[in-house]
Amino acid sequence: AQKITQTQPGMFVQEKEAVTLDCTYDTSDQSYGLFWYKQPSSGEMIFLIYQGSYDEQNATEGRYSLNFQKARKSANLVISASQLGDSAMYFCAMREARGGGFKTIFGAGTRLFVKA
Amino acid sequence: NAGVMQNPRHLVRRRGQEARLRCSPMKGHSHVYWYRQLPEEGLKFMVYLQKENIIDESGMPKERFSAEFPKEGPSILRIQQVVRGDSAAYFCASSSTGASTYEQYFGPGTRLTVT
């Protein structure tokens, strides 16, 4: 069965420092996508970054980068130069093709606290 | 270009009542997905629909829950005879057709409270 594991329920980071949020996944599919979403206290889901299973280079989006290690089935999110506004829940997700569309499985999330 | 719209944003129902949650996908999107988020948990897939068709309902509870995406109008997630355990945030997402796309856009969610 497809599965996403986030082993860190909560993380603290000092403002301006980098932080890595862990994510491992399990799938038997060859083609899949990996995502990270941010959910602030207001509740909306904000897309951060995407990595396709066939992408050879790690994805980057501004201060976000995805450390993709396919053989280890890990897709860790690295946030550089943390800001107070980064305090939120972060969800790792995996998408697999189903019937012309996609089915997305989410991890349990990691709550990030950025300290001033 | 409006994003995914969900209404109502907050819904309060007494036990035994019906809850109807609506989702209007982004313009041009024909794929709709519903997810449920219990407090302090991640999102759980419920159902995936295309216009007039249910593609995957493997995450839907067997009873009281139904979903539709008619030819015209929004997608509806319907919960009959709600119980306290149905209290959660329900998110809708949409995507366009085509295997090359990966983006799934989320709506703001509907927070259901059952009293």
- C-alpha Rg of chain A (nearest Å): 14 Å
| Mass-distribution shape of chain B | globular
What composes the largest sheet of chain A? 6 strands, mixed
| Main β sheet profile of chain B | 7 strands, mixed
Roughly what percent helix of chain B? Answer: under 10%
**Poorly predicted ranges of chain B:** none
**Succession of helices and strands of chain A:** EEEEEEEEEEEE
Question: What is the strand tally of chain A?
Answer: 12
Rg over C-alpha atoms of chain B, rounded to the nearest angstrom = 14 Å
- The whole-number mean of residue pLDDT values of chain A reads 92
> How many β strands of chain B by DSSP?
11
> Biggest interface between protein chains, with counts per chain?
A-B, 25 and 26 residues
Tally the helices of chain B.
0
Report helical residue fraction of chain A.
Answer: under 10%
Low-confidence stretches of chain A: none
> Which class of secondary structure composition applies to the elements of chain B?
mainly beta
What structural class should be given to the helix and strand makeup of chain A?
A: mainly beta
